[in-house]
User: Fold this.
Amino acid sequence: MKDDNCIFCKIANGEIPSKTLFEDDAFRVILDLGPAAKGHALILPKNHYANLYELPEETASKVMLLAKKMAVQMTDKLKCDGFNLVQNNGEVAGQTVFHFHMHLIPRYKNDNQTIGWKPGEPSQEELEEIRAQIVGE
Ligand code: AMP
Ligand code: ZN
Assistant:
């Protein structure tokens, strides 16, 4: 399940070289070429799934286990002060490469980076409307 036109398929499967931190039969973890902070890495499945919606449940659970393992190792080795896991789906959500990937972003005091959003101020009624919409009531 590879996509011939997908750069992350080629990187994950070793056809394009990368700075690899970890590899097994299902995943490759590489350093991001445009890092948000020192050590910013990406978990890439070797099979092509465009996004979270396409990701099989078993692969999804393995991604989180690998993210946990990498976060512990990277925090130990890089001595970072915090850690963000980021995963974008769809252009509107900031996805630019349409092969599922999980960002592993070490954070440092004074790294001067922002990863976030402007908080809204919904009323209790608005929250209830959204809750009911999501759960299907
Ligand atoms: P996203 O915006 O969530 O789709 O993230 C795509 C990420 O891939 C960005 O952080 C890019 O810096 C990174 N990226 C794009 N091309 C490459 C590449 N060839 N090698 C490593 N990282 C890449
Ligand atoms: Zn791909």
Observations:
- The chain is about 30% helix and 20% strand.
